[in-house]
Amino acid sequence: MRDPDKPRQIIDAAIRVFARAGYYHSRVSDIAREAGIASGTIYLYFKTKDEILVTLFREKMADWVDHVRREISAEPDAVAKIRRLVRLHFTVLERNPDLAEVVQVELRQGHKFFRGASAHEVSAYFALIASVLEEGIEARQIREDLPVKVATKMLFGAMDQLATSWVLGKRAYRLTDAADAVAVIFLKGVCADDV
Amino acid sequence: MRDPDKPRQIIDAAIRVFARAGYYHSRVSDIAREAGIASGTIYLYFKTKDEILVTLFREKMADWVDHVRREISAEPDAVAKIRRLVRLHFTVLERNPDLAEVVQVELRQGHKFFRGASAHEVSAYFALIASVLEEGIEARQIREDLPVKVATKMLFGAMDQLATSWVLGKRAYRLTDAADAVAVIFLKGVCADDV
Amino acid sequence: MRDPDKPRQIIDAAIRVFARAGYYHSRVSDIAREAGIASGTIYLYFKTKDEILVTLFREKMADWVDHVRREISAEPDAVAKIRRLVRLHFTVLERNPDLAEVVQVELRQGHKFFRGASAHEVSAYFALIASVLEEGIEARQIREDLPVKVATKMLFGAMDQLATSWVLGKRAYRLTDAADAVAVIFLKGVCADDV
Amino acid sequence: MRDPDKPRQIIDAAIRVFARAGYYHSRVSDIAREAGIASGTIYLYFKTKDEILVTLFREKMADWVDHVRREISAEPDAVAKIRRLVRLHFTVLERNPDLAEVVQVELRQGHKFFRGASAHEVSAYFALIASVLEEGIEARQIREDLPVKVATKMLFGAMDQLATSWVLGKRAYRLTDAADAVAVIFLKGVCADDV
DNA sequence: TATGAATGAGCCTTCATTCAT
DNA sequence: GATGAATGAAGGCTCATTCAT
Questions:
Q1: Is C170 exposed, middle or buried (CB count within 10 Å of its CB: 0-12, 13-18, 19+)?
Q2: What is the nearest CA distance from C48 to chain D, expressed in angstroms?
C-alpha cells in the first residue's frame, strides 16, 4: 500500500533542492516541502538524509550508464562510439540542469561520490569507456600501446571538467557545442597514426 | 594580529584535519587542537570557518600557479612546457598527500571551489595552460584551429581526474608514472599533424 | 467497538512489550505488532498510549485484589489471612513474569502508578490489608495500639521490595521461598505479646 | 578553568525540574533555565540527559549512605542503630522535598534506579542495613535464625513505602511521626524473644 | 594576544495520533 | 471495524562564534 512512486518523487525534489542550496545547506524539511509531503514521510522511504543523496546518485548514475551503453551499441565502431558517448554525456546534462548542478557541484563531497556507495556505479561508467577503447585497439583504430586506464580517466576527466565549467558558468552557452571538439582532440590523441 | 606565522600554521593544521574528516565533519576546535592553539585564537586570524577553507585554497593555488609558471618558463617550447606542467601537477600532489586529499576530494563542495572566492586562482591556472597552448599555436607546434578553451579544460580535467582517482585509490601507485602518458595523449591530440 | 476481546488482547500484548523495553521506550506500533493488529486499531479501543498503561494497571490490580480477597476469606483468622495474603502476593508475581516486570519496574513512573488513575485500586489493596489487621485487633491477635495505616504500608512495602529485588535479580530464585519469612517477621512485629 | 561547581548546580536544578514534571516530561532546556545557564552548557558537564539522572541519583545516594553510616556509628547497639537509621531515612526526605519527590516517584523508572548505574549505591545501603542486623545477631539482640537478606529488604521496603505514600499524599503530615512506629514494629519482628 | 567556557540557533529524527480507503 | 501511510510537533544534541578574563 506504500506508494511505489514516492521514492522517485522525493529524489526528484531532493535534486531540485540540492541544486539550489547544496546538500549541507538543505534541510530535510526543504525536500519534504518541495515534494509536497510532510517531513516525516521521507523517513518512511529513506533511513537518513544521507541515504537520499546516495540513492539519488546511484539511481541516476545507473540510469545514465544504461542509457549510454544502449545508445552507443548502435554505432559501428569504437571511434563512432566515443563520439556518440561524448555527445550523450553532454546532452544528458544539458537536458537536466538541476541534475547537472547536483552531480557536477554538490555531489563532489568527501566520501560520497567516487568513494563509498557510489563507487560501483562510477566504475561501471569507467568500464564502459574502457571497453570501447579496447574494442578500438582490437580493430586497430586505436594504437595498441595505449594505456587504457589512463586514457579512460582522461576522457572522463575532460568531459567532467567541461561540464563543471559549464555549470559554474551558469550554463551560459551550449555544452553540446563543445562535444565534437572534445571527441576530436581525444580521438586524435589515442588513435593509431595511420588512421 | 601580531604573529605573522599563525595563519599559515592554522591553514596547515586545517589541511591535515580536512584531509582526515572532510570540511563539514571537521570542527573548528579540531583545527585548533591540531594547530596547538585555542579555538578562540583562530577567530583572531579568520572571520569564519569558511574563510579558512577559502584562504587555504587561495594560497595553495596561488603558490601552485606561481611555482608552475616559474618552472615551465625554463622550457624551450610549448610542447616541452606541457610535458613539464603535467609532471609538476602530479609531483606537487604526490609530495603533499594531505593537500591532495583536500584539494581533490574535500574541496569539491558546492560553492566553495571553482565557484566563489577561489574562482580567480583557478582561472589563473587555466590562463597559464591556455597561454602555453597559444604559444604552441604561434609556433605552429599546435594546430591553429584548436579551440583553446576547450583544450585547456580538457587537460586540466584529465590531470584532475587522474589525481582524484589516485587519491581515492588510496595512492596505491605512483601518480607521476602516468605523467608521460597523459602528456603524450594530450599533445598528440592537439598538435599539428606534421609535427 | 465490536470485538469485546480486543482490549484484553491489546493489554496482554502491552504487558509483554512493556516488560521487554519499558513504557517510554515502547512504541504503540510495537504493541500493535505484538497483538497482531494494525496500530490504528489500538485507537479504536484506547484513546491514548497512556490509557493503555492506566487500564492495564487498573484491571490487573482489580483482578488481584478480588482474587486475594476471595482467597483469604476462607482463612479462619487474621494471622492465617496475612500468611495467605503474603503467599498469594508472591505467587501471582511468580506465575506472571511479564506482569511482574511491568508492575515492579516499569509502572513505578511519575504520576501513573499510586498517583492518578490507579490510586483507587491501590487503595483497595491497602484497605484489604488494613481490614485484616483490624480484624486481628478485634480478635486480640494483634496488639490493639498498632498504628494500622503504618503497619499496612509496611507490609505492602516489604512485599513490594522483595518482589522488586526478585525481578531485578532476574528472578534467579523462588520468590515464594521468602513468603513465610516475611509473614513471620511481620506478624511477630504486630502481634499481641501474649499470642 | 571549568567551573567545578556547575555539575552540582545543574543537578540541583534537575532535581527541582524533575520533581515538578518528571524525568521524561522535562526538557534539557528546562533544566538549563532553572540553573540559569544556556542549554548547551549542560553538555560541557554531562554527556546526555540520562547521565544527569544517573549522576543525580548516584551522588545523592552515596551522600545518603555516608551520612547514615556516620550517624548511626555513634549509637551503642544494633537496636538503637535501627531506630536511628529509620529516623534518619525519614528526616532526610522530610528536609528535601524535591529530592524526595524525585527519588520516591520519578526515579522508579525502568532500568534507571535499582537496576543499572545506581545498583551499586543502592546495594551499599542494603549492605549497611544488613551489617547492623548482623551486629544485632552477634549481640543476641536479634534472633539468630533471622534471614538477614529478607529482613533487610523488608525494612527498606517498609521505609520506602511509607516515604512514597507520604510524597504521593502531598506530604500532608509529618513523615518522622511514623519513624518510631516503623522501628518498633520492625524490631519487634526481628528481635530475640527474650529481649 | 590568547584562552576556552559559555552561548543558543539550528536540524535531524522519532513516534503518537489521524484519517482516507 | 480494520488498516497503515501520512502527519508534524517536539526535543536532544552539536558546534560555530563570542567574550570575559
A1: exposed
A2: 16
Element (H, E) at C151: helix C148-168
Contact A163, A89 (CB under 8 A): yes
CA D65/CA D112 separation, integer angstroms: 19
Q: Which of B188, B193, B194 best probes binding to A when mutated, by most A CB atoms within 10 angstroms?
A: B188
Chain F nucleotides close to protein (CB under 7 A) are 1-20
Question: Which nucleotide is nearest, taking the CA of residue B42 and each C1'?
Answer: E2
* DSSP code for B102: I
Q: Helix, strand or coil for residue B7?
A: helix
Asked if A150 and B185 come within 8 Å (Cβ–Cβ), the reply is: yes
Min Cα–Cα distance to chain B from A136, Å: 15
What CA–CA distance (Å, rounded) separates B137 from B79? 10
Q: Residue C103 carries which side chain, given as an amino acid letter?
A: V
**Domain covering C54-190 in this structure, CATH number:** 1.10.357.10
In chain C, which segments carry CATH 1.10.10.60?
1-47
| Chain B residue with minimum CA distance to A175 | B150
Which of D106, D110, D165 is facing C22, going by the closest CB pair? D110
Helix (H) or strand (E) holding A44: helix A39-45
Q: Are A104 and A164 in contact (CB under 8 A)?
A: yes
* In the block, residue with C-alpha cell 580567480: B120
Lookup result for grid cell 514516492:
A6
Task: Summarize pLDDT for B73-106 with one digit per residue, the tens.
Answer: 999 999 999 999 999 999 999 999 998 888 887 7
Tell me phi and psi for residue D142, to 5 degrees: -110, 140
Whether pLDDT at D58 is above 80: yes
* Residue with CA nearest to F19's C1' atom: B40
> Residue B62: how many CA atoms within 13 Å on its side-chain side?
9
CA of B32, closest CA in chain A: separation in Å?
A: 21
Highest CATH level, class, for C1-47: mainly alpha
Say yes or no for a CB contact (<8 Å) between B162 and A168. no
Residue A113: band (very low, low, confident or very high) from pLDDT cuts 50, 70, 90: low
| Closest C-chain CA to D178 | C150
Crossing angle, helix A6-21 and helix A28-35, to 10 degrees? 120
14-53 of chain B touching strand F, CB 7 A cut-off: 25-29, 39-40, 43, 48-50
What are the cell numbers at A110?
568527501
Count of other CB atoms within 10 angstroms of residue A170:
10
- The partner residues of A191 in beta bridges, in order of sequence, read A142
Instruction: Of A112-126, C81-95, C129-143, give the lowest mean pLDDT range.
Output: A112-126
Q: What is the pLDDT of residue B115?
A: 62
* Residue C125 CA from chain centroid, whole number: 8
Who's near C174: CB < 8 A, 6+ residues apart? C94
Q: How far is the CA of B161 from the C1' of F18 (A)?
A: 42
